[in-house]
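Researcher: Please predict.
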Amino acid sequence: MLIDSHCHLNMLDLELHDNSMGVVLDKAKALGVEKLLCVAVDLEHDAELKNLAETYDNVFISAGVHPSDTPGTALDYHRLKQQAQHNKVVAVGETGLDYHYNKGDLTWQRERFRQQIQLGRELHKPIIIHTRDAKEDTIQIMREEKIQECGAVMHCFTETWEMAQQAMDMGAYISFSGIVTFKNAKQLQEVAQKMPLHRMLVETDCPYLTPIPYRGKPNQPGYTRYVAEFIAELRNESFEQIAAQTTKNCEVLFGM
């Protein structure tokens, strides 16, 4: 069994799947992906995510605000806290820092990241972290806000081994998406080879970042299998071992 630890089911083009979410999930199950975490990026689509979680037993969700959502605005902490208390919400996020698409004074972004970690600690729910071009500030805020008290995953990790080590030292997990299968992702592949398996998760981030052999086509949760198969070959370990341990890791972190 596999778990897609990070996807965006509500963003999928269902015309590619007979206009049915059920077909998407059946395709995933046929590839061994039996549980999915559908991740929030804003407050506005909360009802949509909750409907998915209430309709499908194997779909879990998060509540959070992406660092690039509504730039410059303050976090509605009270509203997010209410959303995060649904019984199928297993994490806060995705949150974090993105200095690639956001420029200028990003104090607002750092404050929203801090607040969402604080909410995770308050509710005892782990944090899903997005980080891009913001290594130092991401690690600093994680450390200052005591992220080890609620747990975390560095989702769609694309950074250095040094950053992975710093995050794991705080108890964080490292999650690999289809990017790890790309031919030019040598630095990331090195991280996947070096890191301890008991800290690894796998994901699709679908509909984005489709892994080889389907790169260039829309991504879907079932393609988590190809991420896991690639990592198994990279580490000279069995697919079954990667699948079993990453599933266990995901269940432990998110209580799925």
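Model: DSSP finds nine helices and eight strands in the chain.
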